[in-house]
Amino acid sequence: MRKSLALLAAAASIATVATTAQAADYAVDPTHTFVTFEIGHFNTSTNRGRFDKKEGSIQFDRAARTGKVDITIDVASVNTGTAAFDKHLNSADLFNTAVHPKARFVSDKLVFNGDKVVEVPGQFTFMGKTAPLTLKAVRFNCYDNPMLKREVCGGDFEAVVDRTVYGMDYAIAFGVPKDVRLVIQVEAVRQ
Predict the structure, then answer these.
(1) Angle at Cα 180 formed by Cα 103 and Cα 78, nearest 5°?
(2) Are 84 and 137 in contact (CB under 8 A)?
(3) In-domain check, residue 11
(4) pLDDT tens digits, residue range 73-107?
(5) Residue 123 falls inside a structural domain
(6) In Å, what is the CA distance from 110 to each residue of 6, 82, 83, 135, 186?
(7) Which of 68, 111, 115, 117 has the fewest C-beta atoms under 10 angstroms from its C-beta?
(8) Domain count of the chain?
(9) Is residue 137 part of a domain?
(10) Distance in angstroms (rounded) separating the CA atoms of residues 48 and 5
(11) Residue 9 maps to a domain
């Protein structure tokens, strides 16, 4: 009888491990997710902005150290705090949102150091062009959200984007840099 109980307990333990080791789906929480950018302004100051509308999903399996990321950005929702600058950013000079209203980052690989995600190599589509982009994790964590009663995972991920790769050459001749710092601060709720 003791052997049967021990075997039953072991089987239950294995089943629990197998269940928790599977990839889980996470929905991006738009109230805790922000996509921002920074670019130098004539070697004097830094222009900053954010995109107010974004959505996405993440698949994450910590035990197998695998995952997938799919984030879509509504580029026309750019917000710098200055209406005239937002209008210019949306124009054909820069983001050309009438033709290319969305940007998207997709990855099917997460790079880990222990339990922590440290990089997310993927593809970034912007202004109708797709190129490789690796987001570096500045911070990564998972926690049990006491209000939602669910696990939440996320962090701050950043990359330097060469805007000319996507055909955005405006003001390069005037000395505005081609490199843009992109930061994706994301929290995603386990479904």
Answers:
(1) 45
(2) no
(3) no
(4) 999 999 999 999 999 999 999 999 999 999 999 99
(5) yes
(6) 37, 36, 37, 10, 15
(7) 115
(8) 1
(9) yes
(10) 62
(11) no
